[in-house]
UniProtKB/TrEMBL annotation:
Keyword Disulfide bond: no
Record lineage: Bacteria, Pseudomonadati, Pseudomonadota, Gammaproteobacteria, Lysobacterales
Organism encoding this protein: Tahibacter harae
InterPro entries linked to this entry: BlueCu_1, Cupredoxin
Keywords in alphabetical order: Copper, Metal-binding, Signal
Signal peptide as annotated in the record: 1-23
Domain Blue (type 1) copper: 28-121
The protein's name in its UniProt record: Plastocyanin/azurin family copper-binding protein
C-alpha cells in the first residue's frame, strides 16, 4: 500500500489547470461611413461577447452558414423572426460566443458586400507545477 508519506520529497506534480481568464466584451460598429462592419475581422475567445452597435444606415447582422454560433440581430432584438430583421436608426445587441471556431456573418440587406468574420479561440490553458509536501 502506498501512503502519502512515501510521496514526500518525491516529484513535483504537474497539474493542468484552466487559466482563470475573464470574459471580455468586444464591439462591432455597424454602418459608420458606409455599409460596413468595423472591425470587419475580430479575434476573441470562448465565452466572450460581441456587441453589434448600429450608428447609421439600415442593416442587421446574421451569422452565415457554417458559423459555429448562430445569431440574427437587428433593431428589434435577436431571432429568426421579424425581431432580427434589418432596420434603421441606432440599436445594439450583444451576442455570446460559447464555441471555438469561425463565425462568418453578414448583413441580410446588403449581402456579402457587407460581411465580417469573428474567430473564436479556445480559452488559454497554463501549466503549473506544485510540490507535494
Ligand atoms: Cu447592411
Amino acid at each position: 500500500m502506498i501512503r502519502l508519506n512515501t510521496l514526500r520529497n518525491a516529484v513535483p506534480l504537474l497539474l493542468l489547470l484552466p487559466f482563470a481568464a475573464t470574459a471580455e466584451n468586444f464591439e462591432v460598429v455597424i454602418g459608420q461611413g458606409g455599409n460596413n462592419f468595423s472591425p470587419s475581422t475580430l479575434t476573441i475567445k470562448v465565452g466572450d461577447t460581441v456587441t453589434f452597435r448600429q450608428v447609421a444606415g439600415f442593416h442587421n447582422a446574421m451569422s452565415a452558414p457554417g458559423a459555429v454560433t448562430s445569431f440574427r440581430c437587428g433593431p428589434g432584438g435577436c431571432g429568426n423572426g421579424p425581431e432580427g430583421d434589418g432596420g434603421g436608426g441606432t440599436w445594439q445587441q450583444t451576442v455570446l460566443f460559447p464555441t471555438q471556431g469561425s463565425v462568418p456573418y453578414l448583413c441580410e440587406v446588403h449581402g456579402q458586400s457587407m460581411s465580417g468574420l469573428i474567430t473564436v479561440n479556445p480559452v488559454p490553458v497554463t501549466l503549473q507545477s506544485f510540490d507535494v509536501d
